[in-house]
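Support request, please re-run this one:
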Amino acid sequence: MVAVALLVIVGGIALFFKLVASRDDVQIRLGDDYFNAGEAADMAEDVRDRGPILFSDLAGGSRDIVVQHLGQDPAQGWLAFEARRPGDPRNCQVSWSAARNLFEYSCAASLTFPADGTGLGQLPVAITAGRIIVDINAAQRGSSTTPSTTASSVVLSGR
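Re-run finished. Output below.
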Protein backbone atom coordinates (compact mmCIF):
# COMPACT_ATOMS: atom_id res chain seq x y z
CA MET A 1 0.00 0.00 0.00
CA VAL A 2 2.84 2.39 0.84
CA ALA A 3 4.50 1.56 -2.48
CA VAL A 4 1.31 2.43 -4.39
CA ALA A 5 0.96 5.74 -2.53
CA LEU A 6 4.61 6.58 -3.21
CA LEU A 7 4.16 5.73 -6.89
CA VAL A 8 1.11 8.03 -7.11
CA ILE A 9 3.03 10.90 -5.47
CA VAL A 10 6.08 10.49 -7.72
CA GLY A 11 3.82 10.23 -10.77
CA GLY A 12 1.97 13.40 -9.77
CA ILE A 13 5.21 15.33 -9.34
CA ALA A 14 6.50 14.11 -12.70
CA LEU A 15 3.23 15.11 -14.39
CA PHE A 16 3.37 18.56 -12.79
CA PHE A 17 6.92 19.21 -14.06
CA LYS A 18 6.02 17.91 -17.52
CA LEU A 19 3.06 20.29 -17.73
CA VAL A 20 5.05 23.27 -16.42
CA ALA A 21 7.97 22.58 -18.76
CA SER A 22 5.68 22.48 -21.79
CA ARG A 23 4.31 26.00 -21.17
CA ASP A 24 5.90 28.86 -23.11
CA ASP A 25 5.23 31.51 -20.47
CA VAL A 26 7.24 29.92 -17.65
CA GLN A 27 10.12 32.07 -16.43
CA ILE A 28 12.64 30.79 -13.95
CA ARG A 29 14.37 33.39 -11.79
CA LEU A 30 16.73 32.44 -9.03
CA GLY A 31 17.57 34.86 -6.25
CA ASP A 32 16.01 38.02 -4.99
CA ASP A 33 14.98 41.09 -6.95
CA TYR A 34 16.19 43.43 -4.23
CA PHE A 35 19.37 43.72 -2.20
CA ASN A 36 19.24 45.19 1.29
CA ALA A 37 22.53 47.09 1.56
CA GLY A 38 22.04 48.06 5.20
CA GLU A 39 20.95 50.95 7.41
CA ALA A 40 21.26 54.23 5.50
CA ALA A 41 22.59 56.22 8.47
CA ASP A 42 25.30 53.66 9.29
CA MET A 43 26.27 53.11 5.67
CA ALA A 44 26.46 56.87 4.95
CA GLU A 45 29.00 57.19 7.76
CA ASP A 46 30.92 54.18 6.45
CA VAL A 47 31.04 55.58 2.89
CA ARG A 48 32.14 58.98 4.21
CA ASP A 49 34.94 57.41 6.28
CA ARG A 50 36.15 54.64 3.96
CA GLY A 51 34.70 55.27 0.51
CA PRO A 52 32.07 53.57 -1.67
CA ILE A 53 31.26 49.98 -0.78
CA LEU A 54 31.87 47.04 -3.11
CA PHE A 55 29.47 44.14 -2.60
CA SER A 56 30.54 40.83 -4.13
CA ASP A 57 27.85 38.56 -5.54
CA LEU A 58 27.78 35.09 -4.04
CA ALA A 59 24.80 33.77 -5.99
CA GLY A 60 26.13 33.81 -9.54
CA GLY A 61 29.59 35.00 -8.78
CA SER A 62 29.57 37.86 -11.29
CA ARG A 63 27.07 40.54 -10.22
CA ASP A 64 29.34 42.67 -8.07
CA ILE A 65 27.91 46.11 -7.29
CA VAL A 66 29.09 49.37 -5.77
CA VAL A 67 26.94 51.35 -3.36
CA GLN A 68 27.85 55.03 -3.20
CA HIS A 69 26.52 57.93 -1.14
CA LEU A 70 26.85 61.52 -2.33
CA GLY A 71 25.74 64.36 -0.07
CA GLN A 72 25.18 64.85 3.65
CA ASP A 73 21.64 63.48 4.13
CA PRO A 74 21.63 59.69 4.78
CA ALA A 75 18.06 59.49 3.43
CA GLN A 76 19.10 60.86 0.00
CA GLY A 77 21.96 60.69 -2.47
CA TRP A 78 22.31 56.91 -2.74
CA LEU A 79 23.57 55.34 -5.95
CA ALA A 80 24.25 51.73 -6.93
CA PHE A 81 25.95 50.52 -10.07
CA GLU A 82 27.75 47.55 -11.54
CA ALA A 83 31.40 47.19 -10.55
CA ARG A 84 32.55 46.43 -14.10
CA ARG A 85 31.71 47.14 -17.71
CA PRO A 86 29.37 44.64 -19.40
CA GLY A 87 31.23 41.68 -20.87
CA ASP A 88 34.47 42.25 -18.97
CA PRO A 89 35.86 39.39 -16.84
CA ARG A 90 35.30 39.38 -13.11
CA ASN A 91 38.88 40.39 -12.31
CA CYS A 92 38.09 43.73 -13.98
CA GLN A 93 36.37 46.09 -11.58
CA VAL A 94 36.37 49.60 -10.25
CA SER A 95 38.22 50.71 -7.16
CA TRP A 96 37.78 54.02 -5.40
CA SER A 97 40.60 56.56 -5.48
CA ALA A 98 39.89 59.02 -2.67
CA ALA A 99 42.83 61.20 -3.73
CA ARG A 100 41.37 61.59 -7.24
CA ASN A 101 37.68 61.41 -6.16
CA LEU A 102 36.89 58.88 -8.88
CA PHE A 103 36.84 55.17 -9.69
CA GLU A 104 39.83 53.59 -11.40
CA TYR A 105 39.40 50.50 -13.57
CA SER A 106 41.67 47.53 -12.96
CA CYS A 107 41.76 46.34 -16.59
CA ALA A 108 42.51 49.70 -18.22
CA ALA A 109 44.77 52.12 -16.37
CA SER A 110 43.55 55.11 -18.38
CA LEU A 111 39.85 54.33 -17.83
CA THR A 112 38.14 56.10 -14.94
CA PHE A 113 34.56 56.70 -13.83
CA PRO A 114 33.16 59.66 -11.87
CA ALA A 115 31.95 59.35 -8.28
CA ASP A 116 28.36 58.78 -9.42
CA GLY A 117 29.34 55.75 -11.54
CA THR A 118 28.33 57.32 -14.86
CA GLY A 119 29.40 54.93 -17.61
CA LEU A 120 28.59 51.82 -15.56
CA GLY A 121 25.25 49.99 -15.38
CA GLN A 122 23.08 51.93 -12.93
CA LEU A 123 20.70 50.22 -10.47
CA PRO A 124 17.65 51.88 -8.87
CA VAL A 125 17.97 52.61 -5.15
CA ALA A 126 15.24 53.40 -2.60
CA ILE A 127 15.37 54.09 1.12
CA THR A 128 12.71 51.94 2.76
CA ALA A 129 12.24 52.08 6.54
CA GLY A 130 15.72 53.60 6.84
CA ARG A 131 17.37 50.83 4.81
CA ILE A 132 19.12 51.07 1.44
CA ILE A 133 17.27 48.84 -1.03
CA VAL A 134 18.89 48.20 -4.42
CA ASP A 135 16.68 46.88 -7.23
CA ILE A 136 19.18 44.44 -8.75
CA ASN A 137 16.79 43.03 -11.36
CA ALA A 138 15.08 46.20 -12.67
CA ALA A 139 16.76 45.85 -16.08
CA GLN A 140 15.34 42.33 -16.53
CA ARG A 141 11.83 43.51 -15.60
CA GLY A 142 12.06 46.78 -17.52
CA SER A 143 10.97 48.77 -14.46
CA SER A 144 11.71 49.32 -10.81
CA THR A 145 9.36 48.95 -7.89
CA THR A 146 9.84 49.54 -4.19
CA PRO A 147 9.89 46.29 -2.20
CA SER A 148 8.02 45.72 1.02
CA THR A 149 10.59 43.25 2.33
CA THR A 150 13.92 42.00 1.11
CA ALA A 151 16.71 39.54 1.70
CA SER A 152 19.80 38.68 -0.26
CA SER A 153 23.10 36.85 -0.17
CA VAL A 154 25.85 39.29 -0.97
CA VAL A 155 29.13 39.67 0.87
CA LEU A 156 30.87 42.95 1.64
CA SER A 157 34.25 43.00 -0.10
CA GLY A 158 37.39 44.97 0.50
CA ARG A 159 37.65 48.55 -0.60
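Residues 34-156 form a domain with the Rieske Iron-sulfur Protein fold (CATH 2.102.10.10). The chain is about 20% helix and 30% strand.
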